[in-house]
Design a protein that fits this description.
With 296 residues, this protein is an alpha/beta fold. The protein contains eleven helices and eight strands. Strand 6, helix 8 and strand 7 form a beta-alpha-beta unit.
Length: 296
């Protein structure tokens, strides 16, 4: 987790390229290369969401460049006729520089997405950005009229259940959480995080809201499937989401059972922070990365 936020290591990683197994979980460095990967996933029956990696920019120039890149990504999705949405991080779009500036950038992205009938997911970042992320998402929907935007709720946060209830009717991606947060705001015990994860999934489903269950945990997935059957919840009301490069067999198993599976596909050269957080989430991921490195 220290490495994920270390600017010196991040800068060095860009020079190394896709080593240490990153190519297994990051689909490419350019729009063109990642569109090819999405087309391959679509052929298997999987839908996608694209995430141009990068966060915590420090200048308006960087944020404008990131905004334009996301707009071009949406245009490439439309032109290539692949099936994919877009995921964005607002710190990449200038949230830490100026709130209104960030909203302006979001409006540019959402207007393009709406023109092409695409959905945009605002990724949730660390706790310090949680409230402002939810506030801006609501403003984009209620004030600016964009119904093609949703966000993410992390079950390790104490506030998660309250947030899910407040966001009834809004499409949400529900996750466990991938940042290291204080015991003052987040559960630290895995069983408590898992329990709350199932709790918010059930709540959002029972609220008749579209729910994206983003998990590689087959135990959680099995419980969700059993719950939806028990409560006669249509498979059209939810989807399973997994990260590119993880649990490929499970993705196909769910697809064969008739469930919608969306692959979260990250790309770009600013991949280091994302990759380090994936390694931190589960010890098994480190051996996964080393295996990729030594096979080069």
């Amino acid at each position: 987790m220290f490495a994920a936020s270390n600017k010196m290591l991040n800068k060095a990683a860009r020079k190394w390229g896709f080593r240490f197994g990153a190519a297994q979980v990051v689909a490419g460095e350019t729009i063109e290369s990642v569109i090819e990967k999405v087309a391959e996933l679509n052929e298997k029956g999987l839908v996608c969401t694209l995430d141009h990696l990068g966060e915590f920019v420090t200048s308006k120039e960087e944020a404008i460049e990131a905004t334009q890149y996301n707009v071009r990504t949406l245009e490439a999705i439309e032109a290539s006729n692949v099936t994919s949405n877009l995921s964005v991080k607002m710190t990449q779009l200038g949230l830490d520089i100026d709130r209104e500036f960030c909203i302006k950038n979001m409006i540019s992205i959402l207007a393009t997405a709406k023109k092409y009938d695409k959905f945009v997911r605002i990724d949730m970042e660390d706790y310090a950005h949680c409230k402002v992320t939810l506030d801006i998402m609501k403003e984009l929907r209620d004030v600016h009229g964009f119904d093609n935007v949703g966000t993410v709720i992390q079950s390790y946060l104490f506030r998660a259940e309250e947030d899910v209830e407040a966001l009834k009717g809004i499409p949400l991606r529900l996750v466990k959480g991938a940042y290291k947060e204080s015991p003052e705001v987040a559960y630290q015990n895995k069983s408590e995080i898992d329990d709350n994860y199932l709790n918010i999934i059930k709540k959002h489903l029972l609220n008749k809201s579209y729910t994206a269950i983003a998990s590689h945990d087959h135990h959680i997935i099995e419980k969700v499937i059993a719950f939806t059957k028990e409560h006669n919840i249509s498979s059209n009301q939810f989807e399973f989401q997994m990260l590119y490069g993880f649990r490929n067999e499970l993705q196909m198993e769910l697809l064969e059972k008739g469930y919608k599976v969306r692959v979260y596909v990250p790309f770009g050269n600013d991949w280091f922070g994302y990759f380090m957080r994936r390694l931190a989430e589960r010890p098994q991921n480190i051996s996964f990365a080393l295996k990729g490195f030594f096979s080069k």
